[in-house]
Amino acid sequence: MERPENCIITIFGASGDLTRRKLVPGLFNLYMRKMLPERFAVFGVSRSDWTDQVFRDSMAEGIRTFAAKENRDKTDDINEFIHHLYYHSVGTSGTGSYEPIKAHLRELDDQYRAAGNYVYYLSTPPSAFGPITRSLAEVGLNTETEESGWRRLIVEKPFGYDLESARKLNAVLHETFQEEQIYRIDHYLGKETVQNMLVFRFANGIFEPLWNRNYVERVEITSAESIGVGSRGGYYDGSGALRDMFQNHLLQVIGMVGMESPSSFSATSVRNETVKVFKSLRRYNPEDVATNVVRGQYTASTVRGEPVRGYRQEEGVPDDSMTETYVGLKFYLDNWRWAKVPFYVRTGKRLPTRVTEVVIDFKKTPHRLFGAQKKGIYDPNKLIIRIQPDEGILMKFNMKLPGGGFQIKTVNMDFHYSDLSDVYVPQAYERLLLDCMLGDATLYARGDAVEACWDFVKPIQDAWANDKSMKMFGYPAGTWGPKEATDLIEGPDQDWRFPCKNLASDGEYCEL
Ligand SMILES: NC(=O)c1ccc[n+]([C@@H]2O[C@H](COP(=O)([O-])OP(=O)(O)OC[C@H]3O[C@@H](n4cnc5c(N)ncnc54)[C@H](OP(=O)(O)O)[C@@H]3O)[C@@H](O)[C@H]2O)c1
After folding, report:
1. I need a surface site. Which of 92, 208, 321, 436 has the fewest CB within 10 A?
2. How far is it, in rounded angstroms, from Cα 62 to Cα 77?
3. Ligand 1 atom at minimal distance to the Cα of residue 15
4. Does 68 map to a domain?
5. What is the domain-level CATH number for residue 44?
6. pLDDT category, 403, cuts 50, 70, 90?
C-alpha cells in the first residue's frame, strides 16, 4: 500500500480523551505497520500547560492501553515513536494569535522536511472549531498552493445538533477552508464491515440483481448497546439516540446499503451516490412522526440477576428528562430501486446485547411448494451483515432435513472476519487518519450529505420539541425496547429480528 508524503499531524485537543484513547494509539498502529510517512511529527495543541514530556508520557500510557493488542508491549518502538510527539499550549483562554503555533510548525517542518503538508485534527468541543479555523486562517495556515503543500482539516463529531447548526458550522468552516480540504469524521465509515458492504455489493455479480424492490421485502438495521449511559449521563442527556447514533452513523450505513453503483471508486463518485440516497429519504410530515417513530427510555429492571437503574435515575440525568435512549423508525427511500420497500432502524441503550447488524429480508418464494411457512422453519431468505461484534456476513436459506418427506429447516451460511486470522484488522480511526494523509475523502462525510441527513431528522426533532402529545415509552433495561416499536413493522405477525432474547424476562440466552 501507498505511504503518505511527509507531513505534520496537528491535533487540537491534544490533552483530551479522544487523543489518548484513539488518535495517538491509531497513529502508533500505523507506525508499526510502516504506514506513516517516512518523516512525520505529531504536534499536540491545547490549553493545558503541558510540556513535550508530559504529552509524550500521557500518550505512551494511552498506547500501552489502547493500541492494537499486539503493539501494546512494544516498549522500544513506543519510545522511538513518542520522540515524534511535540506539544504547544495555546494559553488558558485558547484565543491568542496563532503566530507562535505557525513558528513552532515551521521548526518542525524544517526538522521533518514536511514540505508544508499539514493535517489539522479538531478534537475539541465544537464551540472551538470556528475560533481555531479562523485563527489558522489569520496566519495563513489554511491555504494550499504549489509551494505551501497541502492543508487538510479533520472535524470530529458532533457536526451540529440540528439542520440549522450544521448549516452554520459548514458556513464557518467554508469561510476559511475549501470543501475539498475538509474531512468530517464518522468513525463508523472506518469500520471494516461497513466498507465491506461496498465490496460485497459491487464486487459480487450475484447479489446486485437482487438488491432492489423486486426481491427485497424490507431492510432492517439494529444498533444495540447493552450498557447504559454510565458516567456520561450529563453529556448524553443533551444528545439522545436520534442524534448520537441515527442521524450520523446509521444514516451513513443506509447510504451504503441504498446507493447505486458509483462510476468509479473516487471520493466524488462514491459520495455523490450516498448523497442521492439521503436526498431520496421520504421526509415525514409532522403528523407522520407519531406513527413512524417510537422513542423510549430504559426503566429500572433486573438484568442477569443484577438490579439496573432506570435512565432518569442515572447520575447527571434530570428526573424529568425527555431524552430518548431508544429510537425505532420506519421510513422509505423514494427512488426507483427502493420504491415501497420499508426501512426499519432501531438503536438503543440497555438492550439485551451489543450488536450492530443490517438485515436484508428477501421476498417469499412466489409459490410455496413445501407447505405453509412457520417461523424459524422455511423462512424467506435473509442476508445479515454484522458490523459488530464478530464482524461477518450470514445468509439464511432453507434446506431439506435428511429423511423421508420434505421437511425443511432454515440454516445459516456464515462468514466471520475473524476466520481471516492472518489478516490485521485496523481500528477505525487508524484507517481514517491514513486516508486523510493520503488525500482520500471517500470514507468521510461531505457537507451536503451531513445537511441532507439533518434535514431528514428535522421533522422528528421538531415534533418531539413542540408537540406535547408525542409519547416517550418506557422499556425495562435488558429488553428490546418499547413494545410499541413492534407496531412499526408492516404485516401480520411481523416483528423485528431478535439477535437474542430479552435478558430481563427470559434469562441469559443470547446468541447471534
Ligand atoms: N471521546 C470519544 O470517544 C469521542 C468520540 C466521538 C467524538 N468525540 C468528539 O471529539 C472531540 C473531543 O472529545 P474528547 O472526548 O477528547 O473531549 P475532551 O476530553 O473534553 O477533550 C477536549 C479537548 O479540547 C481541548 N480544547 C478545548 N478548547 C480548546 C481550544 N480552544 N484550543 C485547543 N484545544 C482546546 C481540551 O484541552 P484543554 O482544556 O487543555 O484546552 C481537551 O484537550 C469532541 O468534539 C467530542 O464530541 C469524542
Report:
1. 92
2. 14
3. 43
4. yes
5. 3.40.50.720
6. confident
Give the pLDDT confidence of 149-197 residue by residue, as tens digits.
999 999 999 999 999 999 999 999 999 999 999 999 998 888 888 888 8
Q: Are residues 98 and 215 in the same domain?
A: no
CA 135 to ligand 1 center in whole angstroms: 18
- 132 in the same domain as 228: no
Kindly state if the Cβ of 123 falls inside 6 Å of ligand 1. yes
Q: What's the average model confidence in pLDDT over 228-252?
A: 93
Peptide bond into 158 cis (omega under 30): yes
**Nearest Cα residue to atom 2 of ligand 1:** 18
- Is 255 in the same domain as 344? yes
**What's the CA-to-centroid distance between 280 and ligand 1, angstroms?**
34
User: Considering the domain boundaries, does residue 170 fall inside one?
Assistant: no
243 and 294, same domain (yes or no): yes
Domain boundary pick from 156, 180, 213: 156
Would residue 233 count as lying in a domain? yes
Closest CA relative to residue 307, chosen from 509, 502, 476: 476
Give me ligand 1 centre to Cα 397, in Å: 47
Overall domain count for the chain: 2
In a domain? residue 394:
no
Query: Quick one: 150 and 204 in the same domain?
Result: no
246 to 39, 162, 208, 344, 357: CA distances (angstroms)? 39, 13, 26, 12, 14
Q: How many CB atoms lie within 10 A of CB 26?
A: 24
Amino acid letter, 319 = D
Same-domain status, 200 and 122: no
Q: Which of 124, 135, 183 to mutate to test the pocket of ligand 1 (most atoms within 8 A of CB)?
A: 124
Q: What are the percentages of helix, strand and coil residues in the chain, rounded to 5?
A: 40, 20, 40
Question: Is any ligand 1 atom within 6 A of the Cβ of residue 71?
Answer: no
Asked if 101 and 45 touch (Cβ cutoff 8 Å), the reply is: yes
Q: Is the minimum distance from the CB of 157 to ligand 1 under 6 angstroms?
A: yes
d(CA 66, CA 78): 13
Q: Which residues of 40-52 are buried (b: 16+ CB within 10 A; e: fewer)?
A: bbbbbbbbeebee
Residue nearest to atom 13 of ligand 1 (CA): 18
Q: Can you give the residue range of the structural domain that contains 60?
A: 7-156
Active site residues: 249
Same domain, 202 and 103: no
Residue 443 CB–ligand 1 contact under 6 Å: no
User: Residue 375 — pLDDT band, cuts 50, 70, 90?
Assistant: low
